[in-house]
Amino acid sequence: MPHGDQRWPARQRTARPALCRLEAAAFALDEASLSEVIESELGYHLIGCEAIHPERLLSFAEARQSIREYLEQQQQSLCQKAWIKALRQQAAKGSSTNKHKQ
Fold first, then answer.
1. In angstroms, how far is the first alpha carbon of the chain from the final one?
2. Which helix (H) or strand (E) holds 40?
3. pLDDT per residue over 23-56, tens digit each?
4. Cα(28)–Cα(49) distance, rounded to whole angstroms?
5. Gene3D superfamilies in the record, alphabetically (predicted)?
6. Which residues lie across from 101 on neighbouring strands?
7. Can you give the pTM of this predicted structure?
8. Would you tell me how many other CB atoms lie within 10 Å of the CB of residue 40?
């Protein structure tokens, strides 16, 4: 969490156990309440709930930037995986070439 401050978080339904525990604790809080100290692999946490806002669908205009960032992140991940694969193939070729020279 950047700077330990998350304003109006939405449920992410994450698969990471540490984040699942934090999310469960956050969404179990009543308005104007503070959690007990929560220990996770990420450290120690206190979660405060100032207010509860009902869940709603975002308009495209509201979601546009988040969608763009998500798609850019996905594309970056694909490019990074392809680059790493190419580096590994290149290293394997170099390794087999060196074996033949010896």
1. 53
2. strand 38-40
3. 889 999 999 999 999 998 889 999 999 999 888 8
4. 10
5. 3.10.50.40
6. none
7. 0.45
8. 15
